[in-house]
Batch of 3 targets.
Target 1
Amino acid sequence: RSGHVAIVGRPNVGKSTLLNRMVGQKLSITSDRPQTTRHRIAGIVTRPDAQLVFIDSPGYQTRSGGALNRVLNRTAVQVAEDADVVVLVCDARGWTPADERIAKLLPADRPVLLAINKVDAVPEKARLIELVNKATACRAFDEVVPISAKTGRQVPLLLDLCAARL
Ligand code: GDP
Ligand code: MG
């Protein structure tokens, strides 16, 4: 199996840290599908059962002043539309209106996994449950996985769940 996985979420939730953690080292293998102008290949994971091509949006790199939030939301949606599986990353310390906006904009016709990152910073289980309740009230997720991109906790599980949805 082979496919594209989009990593989306508001700034600072840990998308880059997660990508680095999942991809580990740079590989010279290229995807058999062309990059669109709306996404770039951020890394590739090759396993015996699957090849996962992680994509993000070039738009994320640019600052565009006043309409920044709108631009970020639009690029998140576009990169999600170019993907086979979408991982929405949020911060375990709290579900915000920005998370909610992005979650609601994501395409309904493909798998969306919620990665609750930075669980190392939230020892209280009740707070995590509260976050899951808020997040799942605003849309359905195919999987909800608490992770720590920083420590690597449950990142292999997230990779398995992505591979299983390709
Ligand atoms: P991005 O803007 O979504 O790409 O977020 P970054 O990957 O740049 O991370 C933003 C900040 O969150 C950085 O200071 C990271 O070190 C921190 N961070 C990322 N993942 C974790 C995590 O699992 N736990 C904790 N405590 N901090 C994290
Ligand atoms: Mg980043």
Target 2
Amino acid sequence: EQIEKGGYENFMLKEIHEQPKAITDTFRGRLLAEENMIKMSSIEDNLDRFLNANRIIIVACGTSWHAGLVAEYLFEDLARIPVEVEYASEFRYRNPIITDKDVVIAISQSGETADTLAAIKLAKSKGAFVYGVCNVVGSSIARETDSGAYTHAGPEIGVASTKAFTTQITVLTLIALKLGKANKSLSDEVFKNYLDKMQMIPKQVEQLLKIDEHVKSIAAVYKDSKNCLYLGRGFNFPVALEGALKLKEISYIHAEGYPAAEMKHGPIALIDENMPIFVIATNKGHYEKVVSNIQEIKARAGKIIAVVTEGDTQVRDIADHVIEIPDTEEALTPLLTTIPFQLLSYHIAVMLGRNVDQPRNLAKSVTVE
Ligand code: G6P
């Protein structure tokens, strides 16, 4: 087992550090920036189904559901295709309206999650085209779907998903870009720019992993918190959910993710000087609005840990701590903003003496209802 951990303390840390390579592996043979194209035969062979779809319905559980939420923003923004994201367990028991004009995308690291598998069978029985995004090759979901793409993240042993999540987002971004190019939602120039920026992601993740000591020092300050709040907007709202999930899974600290603007409809009541609030405030999209959310937190004495774009000064002046991420397109930021939250949860859990690879009560793959 020590050998399998490759010199790391545990699998989770190893898997966090494997992300630059895992994302590169996900790109392999698909992202061909020099030829200005994305090659994915599973999409090319079924292009009509995707382009003529009434909508895409994404079904998944846990972290994979968060990747699905990121995909909702990606598909709608880059390819202008309407998307709904569903918890597989809710979808299958709701008598959902599905037709043969719908495309269902099932996302699953293990490919064995019982609820996701059942949702696929239901969608297929109603005539939908079902596409899988799985990590485990030959898994039940990979076999049960009509077509699909593997994430190629390699084995993920830690129960808390890390590299599986970023590689799911990678595959889903490639699909969204490919569809956006095919239906002309993206101009050739914009498409090319995305390919160039995508190609930089593995190096940027590598660069981000170097801030580990800084994140560790923030973890030391907040490790005894009882509650934490994670806020983000747009593409980074699902990252806030995932950040909170990661913390609760392995540290057992209660954490909630929220869309930043919804804070005033509830969570703001919880804010006091004991409440750390992790805010994603990259310099794109809704930056000014997030800055005003940060000011509202400040006015209530909450502790602010902000994830910002490198070189940011405005948030730095207000926040208690900042974590910088390299600059990229807004649609690609989830691949970067996720990383510091993984490290933060990891360090807090280790400081609290938790078993990060096998947290209590959780299973890597939930194969029963
Ligand atoms: C369990 C795992 C999570 C995972 C979820 C969905 O809860 O602990 O890490 O995100 O199942 O699993 P899947 O294999 O379908 O992605």
Target 3
Amino acid sequence: MNDTPSQWLRERTPEDIECQQVLRQLNRLPRHVAIIMDGNGRWAHARNLPRVAGHREGIESVRDIVKASAELGIGYLTLYAFSTENWRRPEAEVNALMRLLEYYLKAEVDELDRNNVRINAIGKVMALPKRVQRVLKRAIEQTANNTGLVLTLALSYSGRWDILRALQLIALDVRRGKLSPEDISEELFASYLSTGLLPEPDLLIRTSGELRISNFLLWEIAYTELYSTETLWPDFRRKEYYAALADYARRERRFGMTSDQLHDNQRASSYRDYLKELFDTLIQRR
Ligand code: FPP
């Protein structure tokens, strides 16, 4: 890790700084944001471009959302970059996605490191081409001691795969006598998932208007707030992200309780409404 001042902070416009200030004042930023990045193909199709052009432009969105998350002090960002099902795509597209992933990691790792971002991966990483595995391993090792944003890339990942893998690991530990079946609680089960060290996502964003979970973080999203936008991933930049965060900030997360149990401070919630209005005005002005 390197303690030089963040280059990212220097690039920000005054309007952006103002938006981020208002978002912070809402005092309800999610700790963990997960994103299903969808719509790259449609973005390219609308421009008569090959699908890979959509993925390439999608990387620019990844860059912007990672930066904005780090600047806002969000703790965890998890991106669904390649699902188990994505292996079924045409070979040329799979190869292009792998090359883009390798390119992104190589090109960004130093800047991510300078900005205290820690890179993490979930999924069947061993299924990725060796070159990608090597670059990924290096990026994870280089940023392992960073204490800022934890950027988790879901690669060859599916929620059901992870649940089955956790079950197998638990069964092995039972067979070895390390665990007894009575020890298996929700907490213990969650600790065997590949997300075991991450908090559960507070907000799950899906771009391109689809209303599906697509086998992402199935166990972990039990209480997660969902946000869907028509915007295609290559067009999803920080302004759209801020709108999602402001929407989340307004919501009441009850975790099964009643509204009255939670409403300890009505004034705080009106103040949040006021800030949200201010924020919407700022967004429109940009
Ligand atoms: C879904 O769009 C997107 C993907 C399957 C891949 C997402 C990958 C990137 C944004 C680039 C690489 C990622 C990182 C983290 C460097 P789609 O192709 O299904 O779009 P469509 O539904 O419009 O066809």
